[in-house]
Amino acid sequence: MATESLTFPSTLDMNNLPILRIKLNTPPLRCIVEAILPKLLENFENVSAEVVQCPDLTKSPFNLTSEGLCGDENVFDISDVTNLIPSIKREKLYNVKDLKQITGSDPLVIIGACAGPYPFFGADSECVENVKITGDHVENGTHAFMTKSVDDVAECFHKSLPDNEMRFSMMANFFTSNGIKGEVLKIVCEIRKGPLNFSTCIREALVKHFGDEIIALGGVILIENGKVKVHVVKPSLLKIPIKSEKELSNWVHFFELSPPSVGVGCIVSHDPVISINYFYKG
Q1: Are strands 20-23 and 277-281 parallel, antiparallel or unpaired?
Q2: What percent of the chain has pLDDT over 70?
Q3: How confident is the model at residue 84 (pLDDT cuts 50, 70, 90)?
Q4: What's residue 195's pLDDT?
Q5: Residue 232, phi then psi, degrees to nearest 5
Q6: Region class of 239: left (phi > 0), else alpha (psi between -120 and 50), else beta
Q7: What whole-number distance in Å separates Cα of residue 82 and Cα of residue 276?
Q8: CB-based burial of residue 157 (10 Å sphere; 0-12 exposed, 13-18 middle, 19+ buried)?
Q9: 137-140 and 108-115 strand pairing
Q10: How far apart are CA 73 and CA 215, in angstroms?
């Protein structure tokens, strides 16, 4: 494992960066069910959606750092592709601990996707963020995924981050909460028959039902059957200049994951603005 270069830029304090706070629409969960069911039924053979009490997400197969998803829920969209195009901005290094001061939440649970801490690995990576901060105590269940080439064939591998490594690079999409149990949506879809995937179905359904109102959902997805196509960044992004978003696929390898697999993240119906650093307040 690479050690951090003494000349590498220091971590930015997100509390000192521009933050745009937006109040989201938070309709009852039963209204979300009514909104998303028609679109899901158009694209999957078997669909159910209901409001249930959240199971214990610390247990298998989820293995999150918190039991639930409720309490002071927020969705963060931190930076954007301008940190990648036309070249990587290595100085864009952040720490998820800053979100605790921004939200004022204690405990604070953070799940979602981000670019991994380049100084820690000495290579580019993508992270499945899974962190719980209670007071000064940190429980870090984050996994970083990287690629390497063996005989010109890309291989994917992952490493767990230690509790004291809280940094991420360049951009992130996070769902945060107090991590307590409560009512959640349980959505089950089987046998895809239409052109839209699961997340696109939900996003388009929210736009159709709620119009210009911004709706955000955060949580965990369990894939029990079928394969999922995912991407992981190539070992060194610096070697491949990118001129536009259309060329971003040149930076990643695509893989098929076999079940079971678990994902975390958030879905936002549509972007309200374009901004370098902002978060949605639920």
Answers
A1: parallel
A2: 89
A3: confident
A4: 94
A5: -135, 135
A6: alpha
A7: 8
A8: exposed
A9: unpaired
A10: 12
